[in-house]
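Marked as duplicate of an earlier ticket. Keeping the data here for the record.
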Amino acid sequence: MRIKHFLLSALITLCTLSLYAQGPDEDQLGAWYMYFFNKSFENSQFGIQGDYQFRFWDFGADREQILLRTGVTYRPQNANIQFTQGYGFISTGAFGESTSSVVEHRIYQEALFPQKIGNRFLLTHRVRYEQRFVENQDFRTRYRYNLFLNVPFNDTSLGKGVVYAALYNELFINGQTDIGDGLSVQYFDRNRTYVGVGYGLLKNMRAQLGWMRQTTVNWAKNQAQISIHHSF
């Protein structure tokens, strides 16, 4: 029984390693297609928010990741901040011809608070803490901080018909290095830097097109991003 248990553990470890052994083509431009939504319930401090993302190592043939995330939001009275408790389902595919994938279930908490500098610099700070249940790995945690900046060109707010610049930088830090089965990661997980342009389609809906540079310990890659941002 011990030999069978050892062989099974070794097989799981080899499968996990093979999934990440082949790094992505760093010269190939990938693409992320994303929909973000946010709704505040009428006469209530509660609401919902989330995002559905379809990520590809290329522009649509080689799937990198499917991410489905939804959370319940709460806005305290007389406070310019929003808290979220949410859940995410993530399926990550290997680069290239392999059809292997790893499933992750994720619980997260976040705080989101906007800040305005002058008339046109619209900052948003987001702090997120994640509890990650990754297939064939031990329980993991991660800390994230994102600083968003939107700069409208033809108005002072993001409304219908407004063209604006959109920028952000997000830092990811792992909560531990040992992830089980003899595998380990560094505390630094990744960093994402984004530059884009947006347009107000409706009073409560915006579209963005941009470029994002994602840097990890092992590789760095450019991604085109197309996103819809919807409040209702």
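See parent ticket for discussion. The chain has one domain: 30-231.
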